[in-house]
Amino acid sequence: MADYGKLAPWWSDQVSGTRVAFYAGEATYKVGVPTQPAAWQDPAELSKHLTLDQGLNAAGNVYFSAKDVRNDVIGAMSRVVADHYQHPALTPEMPHLDRHVPPAPEFVRAPRGFRRRATDLGRRRNVVRDLPIRRYEKARHRRFRRRHVTIGDRAIP
Fold it and tell me: Which of 11, 35, 43, 148 has the fewest CB within 10 Å, making it most exposed?
């Protein structure tokens, strides 16, 4: 298992001098889990990660997963908020991206006959209902040049 105190600086060094933004991944799913090392039993562990990240060129932090953030196991996220999030977060500047804002996603129905396989107590069933899909009528946005959205092997115009 990698030591965060060694891994985070290594990642920071890897992206230093590049156009890649370093967002440190925080394993909130490990907090308070008895099978994890002793450091993960300490409510201050995640806060220590963020303190370390402030000295690196980290653009921010990403927490895995949202349910673990919400559950606030052993009060670890409360500690992070108290220590590091006294003010609302601002959207980071990303000058390497163009300033064109993509259109808002729209909800569309899955095409007739489209099935996504899922297991629910051993039964297959159609679980696709409304899907958030971004449609791009023209290739205006340089990151999204397709005219159609593809789900599996079907294209949705």
Answer: 35
